[in-house]
Amino acid sequence: MEFALPSKMPVAHSLPARMKLRMRSHIQAIPSVHPFEAQIKKQKTLFILGATGTGKTKLSIDLATHIPAEIINSDKIQVYKGLDIVTNKIAEDERKGIPHHLLGFMDPEADFTVQDFCTHVHVAMTRIINNGSVPIIVGGSNNYIRRLVEDPCTKFKSNFDSCFLWVDVDLPVLYKRVAQRVDEMVEAGLVEEVRAMVAPGADYTRGVWRAIGVPEMDDYLHAEKVMADEKTKRMLLEAAIYRIKQNTCKLVDSQLRKINQMIDELGWKLHRIDATCVLETRGGGAVEAWEEVVLEPSLAIVRDFLEGQD
């Protein structure tokens, strides 16, 4: 079954005018801090936003190899143990020794609310800052990020200066990349991973079972269980893969809408990094393109921010 790209694409919003931030606190910093004490000088925090498949995780690792930083996952599905292929968790050997927080630590069937997320992030940020490092919060669960920053109870804005990097890719290019990545996940063992961990008819409204790539496989898994013929199973598998691609594209659309809401409704200043040419470039040229159009501009923005020039 050939995957067709969505016919309607969200219209990108222009970013608002840049606003200069000035810290007015005259309170001296102390060596060991708790980030949510109002009396303490504001701490620096980095956020990396973007739709799935744009390179957020790679950028977080690259930045953390240039500055003292640790990474906090803000993908509400990647917090769960298991289904590493389906949830596209970064492998241990790809982390380059950078400490990661909130990644693969929750029981697969547990509930993980936005309040749970905020609580765990607060704890992780305290540890990271006391280690003398900068928290890099990266992931695609934008509702969780919005709650973290805007919740008046935590006074996040009063305690932190935040720099937001937005890795963006033109939608036609990103949709194709999403479809390609699903095929790569299938080749890497997505079907076998779901078969080993998920029973047909599972509760797909809870825990890690909500992940795109799990409920779409239900009909196929059921056909295997009842010993359906090979032709039927092949058709059901093709249909499942198609739905995974389709639902991932819908996720992309939703993520972009929420990012634009952060800009238009909340007035967040996001530094947009256009990574389109990276995904369009083949072979070794993609590495050079990434460094030139994504990493180097991002590093310049981050260094200015950390030095107080943003």
Explain the overall architecture.
With 310 residues, the chain is α/β, with parallel strands linked by helices. The chain has helices at 56-64, 114-130, 142-150, 156-159, 171-188, 190-197, 218-225, 230-264, 276-280, 285-306; strands at 43-49, 69-73, 100-101, 134-138, 160-168, 270-274. It folds into two domains: 43-170 and 258-306, 3-Layer(aba) Sandwich (Rossmann fold); 174-246, Orthogonal Bundle (Helix Hairpins). Helix content is 44%, strand content 11%. A six-stranded parallel sheet has the order 3-2-4-1-5-6, with helices on both faces. Helix 5 packs across helix 8 (230-264) and helix 7 (218-225) runs antiparallel to helix 8 (230-264). The longest helix has 35 residues, at 230-264. It catalyses: dimethylallyl diphosphate + ADP = N(6)-(dimethylallyl)adenosine 5'-diphosphate + diphosphate; dimethylallyl diphosphate + ATP = N(6)-(dimethylallyl)adenosine 5'-triphosphate + diphosphate. Keywords: ATP-binding, Cytokinin biosynthesis, Nucleotide-binding, Transferase, Transit peptide. GO terms for molecular function: AMP dimethylallyltransferase activity; ATP binding; ATP/ADP dimethylallyltransferase activity; tRNA dimethylallyltransferase activity. InterPro entries: Dimethylallyltransferase, P-loop_NTPase.
